[in-house]
């Protein structure tokens, strides 16, 4: 980080994690230079047996991932950004082996900055995170072939089905996180019940880990851009313990996060499976001596191609409506169907609806892409509202006449560094556009089709 930026960065100290034997929770206090504070609560009990069997660097990485998630929510972008989005953050982190972490400081700074679109500058101080000894439960003494992230979304569901169908004689370990503010636990549990009925004895799911920002003296940041690094931090504890690869199932469209317009480059929702993020993460782990291999086998598939290629498409059809992809579930005021499970018009919903054209999608959606008016008195053009800005940007994106060279240039600007795969990534974007156009053509009215360049 440029030294001039460090001078103006918001400084936050992450205090030593404290394990509470009565609640089985870990709490971590955040304290800023302005004396503002917050508490991160971690439901650590299910992870204790794994933490006992791995290196301190693996446990440190998990704690850091939880703290990054908490800090991301603690520091409001609107109040603390220099340009309306990027924040400058100087974070003091507790770790066991300070010298080892100093050796990966540059990689960690780069990883976090790429992940959230901010400027992170980390320093370290020595601490000792103490927690009890605990053996692995009997069901976890078996060998597992891999650890999968399991969020309750469509992609992670397909990832689980594909493994369970293709490898019936092997076992899968599933890792999850939930935050009460996101309400993802219900979908996870309902899907797991269906998977257990279909694939009894073929997988084990670790209780979903509750990591929540509590008691903040500041208004919380409303975005959850860093949430998925928590999945990786949790899954790493499991994968390193069982000496298995870690799989992050996510379609290439979302992994690449191709910006809908040049002005939206920094506003992409997530970069946790972006090829560059994974590359930096591998370098970080390698320098720390962490041997777990992390990969995304779906990086060159669109979401629709994941659906079409699912190893048990009939079963997916039966349960797809239980999964949840929506990024705006908490904003129901302007939903036309307020009992729906998805808003229907955020970009995650739009990718989902386009992906599910090949099956009978029983998911309920709060809004149609043809929605015209919004607001209490229905006077405001919907596409001009904050809730309509994503789908509006999507229509404009589809209307642009992009050739492959222009797509390649944008991917490079957006952070792609793997030149060997660059042409493959371009084709993912081309096929993603085609998938979205097919959806808009099928469900859009003439006004929307024209806006998307389809009439």
Word description of this protein:
This protein has 455 residues and is of the alpha/beta class. The protein contains 18 helices and 15 strands. The strands form three sheets. Strands 1, 2, 3, 4, 5, 6, 9 and 11 form an eight-stranded mixed sheet that branches. Strands 10-8-7-12-13 form a five-stranded parallel sheet. The protein has a two-stranded antiparallel ribbon with strand order 14-15. Strand 14 (373-374) and strand 15 form a beta hairpin. Helix 6 (105-116) runs antiparallel to helix 11, helix 14 packs across helix 17 (422-443) and helix 16 (404-413) crosses helix 17 (422-443). The longest helix has 22 residues, at 422-443. Mean pLDDT is 91; it is low at 1-5.
């Amino acid at each position: 980080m440029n030294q001039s930026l460090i001078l103006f960065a918001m400084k936050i100290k992450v205090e030593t994690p404290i394990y509470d034997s009565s609640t089985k929770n870990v709490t971590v206090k955040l304290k800023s230079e302005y004396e503002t504070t917050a508490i991160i609560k971690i439901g650590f009990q299910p992870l204790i047996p794994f933490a006992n069997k791995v290196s301190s660097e693996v446990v440190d990485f998990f704690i850091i991932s939880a703290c990054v998630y908490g800090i991301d929510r603690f520091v409001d972008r609107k109040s603390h950004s220099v340009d309306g989005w990027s924040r400058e953050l100087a974070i003091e982190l507790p770790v066991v082996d300070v010298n080892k972490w100093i050796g990966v400081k540059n990689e960690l700074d780069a990883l976090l900055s790429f992940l959230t679109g901010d400027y992170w500058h980390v320093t370290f101080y020595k601490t000792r995170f103490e927690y009890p000894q605990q053996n692995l439960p009997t069901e976890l003494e078996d060998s597992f072939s891999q650890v999968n992230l399991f969020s309750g979304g469509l992609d992670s569901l397909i990832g689980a089905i594909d493994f369970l169908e293709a490898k019936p004689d092997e076992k899968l370990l599933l890792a999850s996180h939930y935050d009460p503010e996101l309400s993802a636990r219900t979908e996870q549990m309902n899907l797991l019940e269906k998977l257990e009925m279909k694939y009894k004895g073929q997988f084990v799911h670790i209780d979903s880990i509750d990591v929540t920002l509590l008691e903040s003296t500041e208004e919380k940041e409303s975005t959850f851009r860093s949430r998925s690094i928590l999945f990786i931090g949790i899954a790493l504890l499991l994968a390193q313990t069982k000496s298995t690869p870690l799989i992050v199932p996510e379609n290439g469209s979302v992994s690449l996060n191709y910006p809908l317009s040049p002005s939206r480059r920094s506003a992409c929702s997530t970069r946790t499976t972006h090829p560059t993020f994974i590359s930096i993460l591998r370098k970080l782990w390698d320098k720390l001596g962490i041997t777990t291999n992390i990969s995304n086998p779906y990086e060159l598939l669109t979401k629709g191609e994941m659906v079409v290629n699912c190893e048990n498409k009939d079963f997916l059809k039966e349960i797809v409506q239980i999964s949840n992809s929506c990024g705006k579930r908490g904003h129901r005021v302007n939903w036309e169907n307020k009992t729906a499970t998805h808003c229907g018009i955020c970009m995650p919903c739009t990718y989902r609806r386009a992906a599910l054209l090949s099956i009978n999608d029983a998911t309920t959606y709060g809004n149609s892409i043809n929605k015209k008016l919004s607001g209490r008195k229905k006077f405001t053009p919907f596409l001009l509202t904050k809730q309509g800005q994503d789908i509006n940007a999507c229509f404009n994106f589809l209307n642009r006449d992009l050739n492959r060279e222009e797509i390649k240039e944008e991917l490079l600007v957006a952070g792609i560094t793997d030149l060997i795969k660059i042409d493959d990534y371009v084709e993912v974007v081309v096929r993603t556009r085609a998938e979205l156009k097919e959806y808009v053509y099928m469900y859009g009215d003439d006004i929307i089709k024209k806006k998307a360049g389809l009439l």
